[in-house]
Write a sequence for this structure.
């Protein structure tokens, strides 16, 4: 396991990405060894409100000299994320991590990977894309959102994809940018045209992940899904964030996930 | 100033008064990298039953104002896996281990204790008779003094080690159940478990938790827990108490000791800050030093009256 630590991080950047989403970059004073798909628990404010930390997936980690920059993309959905959005550069934020298990990024025989993101599910997929691009491992990336203004970081995605000769496929539900309709339909069209993937790596809303799970099952493809569940502790002791597995066990997503191989998950993710 | 942090709960000597509450620190080793269990007075395990338990269907937790409602349902690995896989390392680290015992019948409680009696490394037992989140066992024993006395007596017959009974704040007669536990042979009482509570999603017009209700913990319940510790201490001054409920700081610990507790368990604070138990210990030591208290046990039951 990659060593976790409770960092006293400092805010470096808070900036809007879309009307609802923002980028948060934190500076850490010691190395953060994280893999795509892992997450951190952030304390949103001193005091008792909110009481618990919030879990956020990592969008990237950059080591610049002695500084370590940890990047996250957050959607403002409640009190915790709203407080984080209002933080000023230099503010201290307790950051526990990295936590959980990330995506499997090896590419057997140089076969390409299919990365699939929906909405604010992009951060771990972007992180994976940039790691794969740096390694020269081929992949295609599918990014879907409800409308054009919810598609963000498109230039970074395009740069990562083009570095390995892959395809970037953008989709919007309303057809305002890219291919109209769901990412899973865009993915299926490529599969129909004969494209093959060693594995699908995916993060997004449950409905998208379930559609992807059904598609992968129909096509006999390996897939990994990054699931979201409400967490109290993030370290496997509260047992609040359990996910049902294929064998009926309920396991904490924070410790055994948040990325799960599709074939380990309960049948409802596959049928 | 050097502060003597040692305390004792009945015959059980503790290096300091800080323990972890059941269900918030795993089996004692899960967070060892962030909060070394050997630095604490002790750890109380996740409630252990004879066989593993799957627990409740999610959603299981919801945050409320300064609190957390949970309905985990006593998911645990079972006493056998604990004794086989966890206890040897806990013993090697010289951690004071209190096993939280749960069963659906008196025989099941006895079975957990009997399994632990066959190995080294258990310092004491805490009977969970107050879990609000299971349909059989648990709270039904904690609410009926006669049932509780006989359950405690059955467990008492199975061990010579210290036996604590964790009281339910939901019981109609808290002191009555405490006395019943002591009549049955309990050496100490720990209190309080979570308070029955619920959260409602007004838009969906449904309860937030799958079970509808759960148990409230966290700073929101601290004043209630303090009042209950004080009431039980006043009614049963010779019975050692372990205070539980919303402890976040060293000063909170001092308050529980003054109310009559000999030690405390830190629970929900661990979810906010995995190192909370060691942090709180440091704060308690500094509080005592600042107040000129040479030994932490001077505080126990030291509440002066009136305000």
């Amino acid at each position: 396991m990659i060593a976790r630590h409770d960092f006293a991080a400092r805010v470096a950047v808070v900036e809007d990405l879309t009307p609802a989403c923002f980028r948060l970059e934190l500076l850490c004073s010691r190395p953060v060894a994280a893999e795509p798909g892992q997450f951190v628990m952030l304390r949103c404010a001193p005091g008792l409100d909110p009481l618990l930390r919030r879990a956020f997936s990592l969008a990237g980690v950059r080591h610049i000299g002695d500084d370590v920059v940890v990047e996250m993309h957050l959607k403002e959905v409640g009190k915790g994320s709203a407080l984080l959005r209002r933080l000023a550069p230099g503010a201290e934020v307790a950051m526990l991590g990295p936590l959980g298990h990330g995506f499997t990024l090896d590419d057997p025989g140089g076969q390409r990977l299919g990365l699939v993101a929906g909405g604010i599910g992009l951060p771990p997929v972007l992180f994976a894309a940039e790691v794969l691009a740096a390694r020269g491992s081929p992949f295609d990336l599918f990014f879907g959102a409800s409308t054009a203004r919810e598609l963000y970081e498109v230039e970074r995605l395009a740069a990562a994809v083009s570095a390995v000769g892959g395809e970037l496929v953008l989709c919007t539900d309303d057809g305002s940018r890219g291919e109209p309709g769901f990412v899973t339909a865009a993915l299926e069209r490529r599969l129909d045209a004969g494209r093959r993937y060693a594995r699908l790596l995916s993060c997004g809303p449950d409905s998208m992940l379930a559609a992807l799970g059904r598609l992968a099952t129909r096509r006999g493809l390996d897939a990994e899904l990054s699931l979201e569940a409400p967490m109290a502790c993030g370290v496997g002791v509260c047992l609040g964030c359990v996910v049902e597995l294929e064998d009926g066990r309920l396991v904490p997503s924070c410790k055994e996930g948040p990325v799960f191989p599709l074939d380990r998950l309960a049948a409802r993710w596959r049928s | 100033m050097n502060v003597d942090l040692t305390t004792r709960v009945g015959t059980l000597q503790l290096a300091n008064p800080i323990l972890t509450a059941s269900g918030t620190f795993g089996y004692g080793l899960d967070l060892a990298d962030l909060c070394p269990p050997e630095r604490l007075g002790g750890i109380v395990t996740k409630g252990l039953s004879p066989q593993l338990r799957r627990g409740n269907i999610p959603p299981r937790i919801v945050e409320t104002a300064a609190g957390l409602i949970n309905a985990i349902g006593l998911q645990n690995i079972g006493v056998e896996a604990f004794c086989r896989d966890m206890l040897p390392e806990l013993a090697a680290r010289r951690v004071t281990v209190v096993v939280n015992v749960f069963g659906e019948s008196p025989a099941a409680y006895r079975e957990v204790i009997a399994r632990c009696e066959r190995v080294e490394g258990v310092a004491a037992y805490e009977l969970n008779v107050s879990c609000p989140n299971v349909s059989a066992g648990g709270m039904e024993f904690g609410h009926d003094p006669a049932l509780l006395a006989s359950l405690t007596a059955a467990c008492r017959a199975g061990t010579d080690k210290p036996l604590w009974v964790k009281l339910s704040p939901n019981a109609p007669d808290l002191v009555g159940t405490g006395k019943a536990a002591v009549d049955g042979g309990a050496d100490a009482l720990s209190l309080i478990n979570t308070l029955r509570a619920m959260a409602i999603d007004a838009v969906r017009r449904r309860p937030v938790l799958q079970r509808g209700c759960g148990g409230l913990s966290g700073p929101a319940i601290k004043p209630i827990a303090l009042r209950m510790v004080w009431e039980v201490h006043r009614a049963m001054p010779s019975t050692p108490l372990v205070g539980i409920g919303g402890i976040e700081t060293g000063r909170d610990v001092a308050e529980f000791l003054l109310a009559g507790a000999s030690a405390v368990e830190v629970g929900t604070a661990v979810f906010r800050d995995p190192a909370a138990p060691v942090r709180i210990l440091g704060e308690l030591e500094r509080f005592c030093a600042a107040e000129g208290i040479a030994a932490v046990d001077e505080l126990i039951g030291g509440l002066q009256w009136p305000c």
User: Anything to note?
Assistant: The interface with chain B takes residues 3-4, 6, 43, 48-53, 94, 96, 229-230, 232-233, 235-243, 248-250 of chain A (CB under 8 Å). The helical segments of chain A are 79-85, 122-135, 154-163, 183-192, 206-219, 253-256.
